[in-house]
Predict the 3D structure of the following.
Amino acid sequence: MPTMTLTFRRIHPHFVAEASAIDLHQLHDRPILNQIRAGMDEYAVLVFHDQSFSNDEQLAFAQRFDGSTRKAGVSAMIGKGRSGYEGLSDISNVNAKGEIWSSEDRKRMSRMTNRLWHTDQSYEKPNGRYSMLLAKTVPPVSADTEYADMRAAYDALDDETRVRLEGLQVVHNPVHTRSILGVELSANEKAQIKGAVHPLIRTIPGSGRRSLYLASHASHIVGWPIPEGRMMLMDLTEHATQRQFVYQHAWKVGDFVIWDNRATMHRGRAYDDMKYRRELVRATTLDV
Ligand code: OGA
Ligand code: MN
């Protein structure tokens, strides 16, 4: 068997690399898996092309790569996806019958929150660590995903701000995210959602780099008056999502993007989702 080689090519000044040709769905080679993990520590976002995974294979890959996958999130509570697995999210604009959803579909309303800058499952503990999104159907128009480098954003803060932020804890709750867009949740749904508290500044163990841990789920700073904390989170988000920290991914079928939720934020961009099908599947591992 020929020796497998994998190389990364940086495609943004701060983060993001594109991987050389490799077939991940049957990859069991531990040194190569470790090389991908090291690549995640360096680049925070890795783009692989021409991948094909069944749902089983994608879930198995996520588990081989990083251990345990997450439990079902809030969107699964609102409407079942098609993957059939808790650890896989159906990121598609279609209903259970596979038809493009209707404009008032609750899942559509809830999924609209993906267009706000966020990290996956920051409202849980353990939060999401790596997310791995596979593009199965993409529209002929742009329907991109943007990523922002929260390590570079941290590095660019002035000393006074860094000192001020040190040690702060932040409450994350998906009810907050939904309230931003006016998505209603029932009392019963709200009762199932607890939210989670996380530090505002994290150090990523693999790289030792510090990072701003922000998300649209972030509702307030523990111990601060709510408006003051919320304003600080808004200012930091504005800072961290300036163009120089952002990479915009234009999906092709077979693209498989892995991102580190501890080191990045992301958001989906608007497209005509009542006209074009867009079907992606995401696996997310737990930050344990
Ligand atoms: C996600 C997500 C954005 C998009 O899958 O976690 O936020 O562009 N996706 O679909
Ligand atoms: Mn997301």
In short: The mean pLDDT is 95.
